[in-house]
Amino acid sequence: MTDDATIKRWFTEEVLPLERDLVRFIARHCRKGEDVPDVRQEVYERAISGAPADGPRTTRNYVFTIARNVLIDRARRAKIVSFEQIADIDTLGWDHDLFAQDRQLTARDELRRAMAGLEQLPPRCREVVRLRKVEGLSIRETAAQLGVSHHTIERQLTLGLRALADFMLGGAGRINRTPAAPVALREADR
Fold first, then answer.
1. Burial class of residue 21, CB neighbours in 10 A (0-12, 13-18, 19+)
2. What angle do CA 85, 107, 27 make, to 5 degrees?
3. Distance CA 68, CA 87 (A)
4. Residues 6-53: pLDDT tens digits?
């Protein structure tokens, strides 16, 4: 890439979106946390100055290979080469998603939390949420299976999902029913 506008466009459209993953990668393999911004900048400098004329085939692999090389160069310069550090870098599968394991663990934790929140719901409400959201039944099918009206299903589902969302966000996960109108007001409406 020789045109400045082309390089700038490539950098902003393809390299900068990788920054979060790149910083995590560097932080994981860098000895000092304060060196992460310097390493990142060096990666960017090498990426821009060494980009092939027709652009890299896959920008992600290109940038992460540069990051690996920068980390190896820094380790060599520091004259303190940890065999574990180099071994860890070499064992990484570059074609694999670098954060798949983190995402998998997070998803499992969220699923456990959702199951715990579901268990806290009252039995009818829990059954409605389970049938609608886990089993995938329609409102009519759920109402027929439980022998109640579709209005009851909608109401129980709304209450259950609100309580579940509250639990997932760190709340108590209790059902908050809107207070019924006082008897005097109901009789006045008649």
1. middle
2. 25
3. 12
4. 888 888 888 889 999 999 999 888 877 888 899 999 999 998 888 777
If we measure between CA atoms, which residue out of 104, 32, 24, 101 comes closest to residue 63? Answer: 24
Q: Reduced to 3 states, what is the DSSP secondary structure of residue 42? A: helix
CA–CA dist 137, 127 (Å, integer) = 11
Question: E strands along the chain, which residues?
Answer: none
Phi, psi of 64 (to 5 degrees): -75, -30
What token pair was written down for 55?
A: 């652009």
Contact 126, 79 (CB under 8 A): no
- Model pTM greater than 0.70? no
Token couple for 105: 């663990």
